[in-house]
Amino acid sequence: MAQMISTMPMVDATPAVSAIMASKLPQSACLDTPASGITVVSRQHVRPDAASAMADLTLSVSDLPMLSCHYIQKGLFFPAPDLPMSSLVSLLVSSLSRALAAVPALAGRLVTLPDDRIVIRCNDAGVDFLHAVAPGLSLDDFLVPDADVPTKLTKDLFPMDRTVSYEGHRRPLTSFQVTVLRDGAVFIGIVANHAVVDGTSFWHFFNTWAAICRGDSPRPLDFRRNFFGDSTAVLRFPGGVGPAVTFDADAPLRERVFHFSADAIREMKAIANRRPGGGAHDAEVYGKMAHDPKNPESRGEISSFQSLCAQIWLAVTRARKRLAPDATTTFRMAVNCRHRLLPAISPAYFGNAIQSAVTTATVSELARHDLRWAAGKLNASLAAYGDGAIRRAAAAWQAKPGCFPLGNPDGSVITMGSSNRFPMYEGNDFGWGRALAVRSGRANKFDGKMSAFPGRAGDGSVDIEVCLPPETMAALLRDAEFMQTARGMLGATWSRDTPRS
Fold first, then answer.
1. Tens digit of pLDDT for each residue in 182-229?
2. Sorted alphabetically, which InterPro entries does this protein's record hold (predicted)?
């Protein structure tokens, strides 16, 4: 076990209930007792352990569109630590205080300046840290094979549920919750303002906190907000009334995590990269996969993840029974722009550096063609999404600023977020064992919203969190072709037989 720090944190000295007494509290003393049985027993306000010298950080053209999005909610289940819960809470709070000193942007607030620019003021205002207990729940209640994610439970693993990022003017830019289950397992959840971080930056901070907690030195981050240089574009919100999310957050959804084994993904990739059987249209599509001088980033090979996404695109479109044959289906994929720009920006750039690559096809086209064809379409779109495409998209936004329209208004869109390359398991050992599973809250979820996670084994397997209306999910589960590729552990990536370290 790595050495864990034990320095005293910079916290407010008035937690509502002492963390030391958390496990002995009567029900009446609890701060919050939702129906899930996850009870908040302690709330502390944590500040960086060193004063910030960082100047205001102006939100970039990639940050501003995210002001209408919910805060990101992601977290990890961990095995039971070999220390008392009071010591665990103290350890996490003290290391968080040091992590915030290393990443002061997350301890600040959003401020709108007189010229309507919105900045992150690194004023050490601090964050909230909640300690919760779930004496009636264990890992088996959350990680259920062959079942939907129990969203009525997972939603209470996170604070600031469904908070819109513009609220960072008045509320902390990050909040944290550690939840201790009946079997001693621990869930560590982070909620982060989406106008301040994208997924890459989110997991950079998670790694930073874990590294400090286990006694290691964190990697330095790049806080310069010069992603596209200076921009005069602003988003104006008269009267300080911020935007609302652009989708119906209360629409009924079912959520599952499908596990795709490394073998299944290799098989899909092999199918996607076979030579086409002929036909003018196939030749046109696959010709774009070659080393086209107009697309210098193309490697001529369809990737494993593109192959998996193609399988999902085909299957979900089949499951959407109400779509007309001539309806246009859209596959939106979050693109990390850091390495696609010329020159590339630092992988440690801390902020939003994402755009959305769009691929379209009609329902009838997907029905007539196979995995190889759909994967070729995705490959061509992503290969073309280089420096020029990124800068054109940024210029178009600056000409007409607006918030990013998350959602699925016509019922034919798939939006793939997160990444199976994010270090969710690697680098997030807080000092008592490797994480067991990733889960998210209710933030930014709608029909067709999907998130990619790496498989816990680190062998190239991938977990896809899928959100669909009940009837569409039921149809997807009846799709024999899709279910054969997802024949691993459905609904969970952990079992009692999984090694815990």
1. 999 999 999 999 999 999 999 999 999 999 999 999 889 999 887 776
2. CAT-like_dom_sf, Sec_Metabolite_Acyltrans
Give how far the C-alpha of residue 68 lies from the chain's centroid of Cα atoms, to the nearest Å.
Answer: 16
Choose among 408, 489, 440: nearest CA to 150: 440
Amino acid code (one letter) for 371: L
pTM over 0.70: yes
* Pairwise CA distance, residues 214 & 99, whole Å: 12
Distance in angstroms (rounded) separating the CA atoms of residues 471 and 457: 32
> Which residues share a beta bridge with 57?
120
In this structure, what token pair is assigned to residue 337? 């722009």
> Measured between alpha carbons, how far is 79 from 86 in angstroms, rounded to an integer?
17
**Segments in 103-198 forming alpha helices (H):** 139-142, 151-154
Number of residues assigned to the chain: 501
Burial of 40 (0-12, 13-18, 19+ CB in 10 A): buried
Q: If residue 307 lies in a helix (H) or strand (E), which one and from where to where?
A: helix 304-319
Local structure of 280: helix, strand or coil: helix
